[in-house]
Amino acid sequence: MRTEAAKRVELVFSLFDANGNGVIDSGDFDLMTGRVLEAAVASEDGAKEAIRTAFRRWWTTLATELDVNGDGVITVEEFRPFVLDPERFGPTITAFAEALSALGDPDGDGLIERPLFLSLMTAIGFEKANIHALFDAFGPDAEDRITVATWAAGIEDYYAPELAGIPGDRLVGAPAV
Q1: At what angle do helices 26-39 and 3-16 cross, to 10 degrees?
Q2: Beta-carbon count within 10 A of 36 CB
Q3: Could you give the residue ranges of the DSSP H alpha helices within the chain?
């Protein structure tokens, strides 16, 4: 796994541990889902249900694939070696990417404005400066918007262990120059 991917894994674990108790459990996904839905007030019910389903699927996939001792929690030791395995998590990541990026487009024009992107990513737990750096790396248009497809592809790239130098690397800190 590339160094950049390893940093992304550590950040994802800390975000998934939404209550900060040092492990990931189903309650963390309920908490994160609630935060994201609060930020998505203008989204349609179908988009909200899709993100609920995507978060539930994340938890179910993690619990099935990584909870080796069956105790209902995922430790960082269980999480690190396997979470970026495309064979295990590819479909879950794709569903999540599609649901989250669609949630960012409540008017259905195929474009995501920076303020809503910022709200959704902050609700997940990312740092504001890093969110802005990511949005900028996606190459917004003159009206400060990115496409739904760009964001969805960026989410999928974020979970690819072989990739480095991707826009998503800006979420783990200042980009290298």
Answers
A1: 90
A2: 24
A3: 3-16, 26-39, 45-66, 76-79, 86-103, 114-124, 128-137, 148-158
Contact predicate 102/116, CB 8 Å: no
Which tens digit of pLDDT belongs to each residue from 71-123?
999 999 888 776 667 677 888 889 999 999 999 999 999 999 999 999 999 99
Give dist(CA 14, CA 9) in Å, integer. 9
Collapsing DSSP to helix, strand or coil, 168 comes out as helix
Q: Which helix (DSSP H) or strand (DSSP E) does residue 145 occupy?
A: strand 145-147
Q: How far apart are CA 42 and CA 37, in angstroms?
A: 10
User: pTM for this structure?
Assistant: 0.91
